[in-house]
Amino acid sequence: MGETKKVFFIGDVAMDEYYSAPYFPKIKEKILVQTLPAQMGGMIANAACVYAGYGAPVSFLTALNPGAVSKKLCRGLNEAGIDTEFMVWDESLPDAKTIIILAEGEHTVFIPTLNLQRIELSGEAMEALRQAEEKLGDRIRYTTPLLREVQAGTPTVWAYRTAGLLYIKVYDGILRFAGVIPAPDTADVCYFTERLGKEFALKSCELRISGDDAKACGKLLKGYFKRIVCE
Predict the structure, then answer these.
(1) Element counts in the chain: helices (H) and strands (E)
(2) What span, in angstroms and rounded, lies between the C-alpha atoms of 154 and 171?
(3) Is the predicted pLDDT of residue 181 greater than 60, yes or no?
(4) pTM for this structure?
């Protein structure tokens, strides 16, 4: 029977609050906006949700206050099949949220800072990470997708595959998604792209792909994107 691996995602989760405005206001101007349904967001939380869709055990860890917004975010993670046992609770933190204004065909994002410089992990979380290191040794990987910034004025998906991992980012004016996904072969890249297409309008995006078997992956993904560039 195969070994089941648990993946820990440590990073951001936030409540995205959407508002629609007839136009974007000038400095000192006051306008009425329409409140739209809020939804759970955050680059690392989005990555955890996509990975949990594979059916793998996933744990998410960050620091939040113990208020109603935080509890709603944790419920959203749990409903996506993500464990939040190791969350860090800090009453001094403000609510984790972003404010997104939709106006004139564009969106502007305001991100209130949490002033969070470090996360004090609990003994249980440290023990879980220690056990993973003890069990896997040098096979354990600490990865981040935030190794490269993409300059793109149009909706763009950047992908880089190396050493059996797919680093991927989705841009749509702002960075919408960033993740690192196991992809030992090109079939895994296709499977992940199908799942990603359920969250984002990939057919309006350009794909920029590089790394291992970039041209082969580009051919397989031809029908998913507006345009594909193998870098």
Answers:
(1) 5, 15
(2) 8
(3) yes
(4) 0.60
